[in-house]
Design brief:
This protein has 529 residues and is of the alpha+beta class. The chain is 34% helix and 24% strand.
């Protein structure tokens, strides 16, 4: 464990990618295979599930530290992290046990099957044998909240250096639904198993936000299509097996059973990149229709009828079992068109149309009506571009439509987490309904640190009531809230919910009475919902 602590400390104390990469490379060169595998899993989001509730951990930590629970709860928002708060309040360990990372993860997994009394006895015994940083990491593991400021790409780069492998090939190996319980370091990283590729997706190619339209050259060099508001997915058909993966490496095959029909029409060895959209009456449905189907293991017949889905296909990555990502987009699109055209008209797949605008001004006009077409803007893809891995600049751009905005009044504030634990950064906003302010959304991003510090000082002086960590403040400040979409929501008092809300500016110029109304929100709902 001390080697993993050294690695964690080295990465926690720097923002330089070169230093982080060097520390990870050294770890992958010296750690045991099982520890390396768990390190890869942790840094790629494959964390063990929570084995002890945070409520119990709070109670046990306060008891061991000899402090009342209320005092522990006062410490928590100041530190900003539960695992770190526990590690800091505990008394020094009476002994030390230097076990491997794998050993302590096995302990966390064993907690799941224990009764509460046995869990407590085990956790307290572990706390009494670890250093402060080791306790912090152990607490992260048992709460299922292990996160570290290292991207999967950086971790993969270090692993490629340590194992002398091609980074792109290694990125492909790390895709898919593997866990340390289902594979080994040898099988996952060091061995090339062709059968393992049957269900494995390719790394997704991601676009940059449009920067300068003038630098793109002639519009005839570009494939221009709508940026659809759905779920990015790869459809894989290999040797009779059908798989559907999300961009977040989530296997979605069973969530969209109507797409399984595609296996009846398409050739084996086909991999298509596209967007899963709720689609009815030959038109896309709003995202909230698709959202109702997410997080379900099975989809009831009623929901299948209300929100059927299609795959809006826009790229072909594999043709007849051959990886064609190095071919240019023009070739890949033509092959994709042939495949889609061979499917019956009622097949759950559509080709994402190349809008072929005559000029950049024409493209801008198409972008302006994106929201009316349930799209988020335009995608611009250079026709001679290969399909790369990750976010690369130059060949793929997303030109999103301007966000919707509304002016709202801040009525509640709550402290943030991590480095913002000492600042009030999470706010609840309201709009007018007659003479009353009705809460309708929360937002916690979009302002500068200086603005957050200024609001924090104001919140401390203008708190009306406290509800645990939440403070009700006097309604004085108006903020412009930007968001990507609006939908009906019976769970909210306002009757609406926003998609991706954030604060776009602090309206010092706007009197309280001139904030928007609930009727304004409902008009937006009627137009864009």
């Amino acid at each position: 464990m001390k080697d993993f602590v050294t690695l964690f400390t080295a990465m926690d104390q720097t923002t330089k990618t070169t230093v982080k990469t060097a520390a990870l490379t050294a770890y992958f060169q010296t750690a045991s295979d099982t520890d390396k595998l768990w390190c890869i899993a942790l840094f790629s989001g494959r964390r063990p599930k929570r084995s002890v509730t945070t409520t119990l951990l709070r109670e046990w930590a306060a008891e061991v530290a000899g402090i009342p629970l209320w005092l522990f709860e006062e410490c928590y928002p100041i530190v900003g992290d539960l695992a770190e708060t526990i590690a800091l309040v505990l008394p020094p360990a009476k002994s030390h046990e230097d076990q491997t990372l794998t050993h302590w993860i096995d302990v966390t997994k064993s907690l799941r099957s224990m009764e509460e009394g046995e869990k407590k006895e085990t956790v307290l015994a572990v706390w009494d044998r670890l250093s402060t940083t080791e306790r912090f990491l152990f607490n992260k593991l048992i709460t299922g909240g292990f996160r570290v400021g290292v991207s999967t790409k950086l971790m993969t780069r270090a692993l490629a250096r340590a194992t002398d492998q091609d980074e792109a090939a290694l990125t492909h190996k790390l895709m898919g639904q593997w866990t340390p319980e289902t594979t080994s370091f040898e099988a996952l990283i060091l061995t090339d198993d062709p059968m393992a590729d049957l269900s494995r997706p390719y790394p997704f190619y991601l676009a940059y936000q449009m920067e300068n339209l003038d630098e793109l050259g002639a519009i005839t060099h570009w494939n221009i299509e709508y940026k659809w508001d759905g779920i990015r997915g790869q459809m894989i058909l290999r040797e009779g097996q059908f798989h559907l993966w999300s961009r977040g490496e989530d296997l979605m095959t069973d969530r969209f059973p109507e797409l399984h029909r595609l296996a009846d029409f398409m050739p084996q060895g086909t991999v298509i990149d596209g967007e899963v959209l709720a689609w009815k009456d030959d038109a896309p449905l709003p995202f909230n229709a698709l959202q109702k189907r997410l997080g379900r293991k099975t989809v009831p017949k009623k929901l299948l009828a209300e929100a059927p889905v299609i795959l809006h296909a826009y790229d072909l990555l594999e043709l007849d079992g051959i990886d064609i990502r190095e071919k240019d987009l023009k070739f890949r699109r033509e092959a994709l068109e042939t495949i889609v055209a061979s499917c019956p008209a009622d097949a759950p797949i559509k080709l994402s149309e190349n809008l072929a605008p005559a000029s950049w001004d024409h493209a801008a006009s198409l972008r302006d009506v994106s929201r009316e077409n349930h799209a988020e803007g335009l995608m611009l893809k250079r026709l001679d571009s290969p399909y790369l891995a990750g976010r690369k600049k130059g060949d793929w751009w997303k030109w999103k439509v301007d966000p919707l905005t509304i002016d709202a009044v801040m009525i509640y504030a709550q402290a943030g987490h991590g480095r913002r634990a000492n600042l009030f950064t999470d706010y609840t906003f309201a709009v007018w309904n007659g003479n009353d302010l009705v809460p309708f959304t929360k937002a916690y991003s979009g302002l500068t640190d200086a603005e957050f510090r200024k609001i924090t000082a104001w919140v401390k002086k203008n708190t009306i009531q406290r509800f645990g960590p939440v403070r009700q403040v006097s309604p004085e400040h108006v903020f412009e809230i930007a968001f990507e979409g609006i939908q009906e929501s019976p769970r909210h008092k306002s009757g609406v919910a926003l998609r991706f809300p954030r604060m776009s500016r602090w309206r010092h110029d706007k009197p309280l009475q001139e904030a928007n109304t609930l009727d304004d929100l409902k008009q937006m709902l009627a137009q864009y919902g």
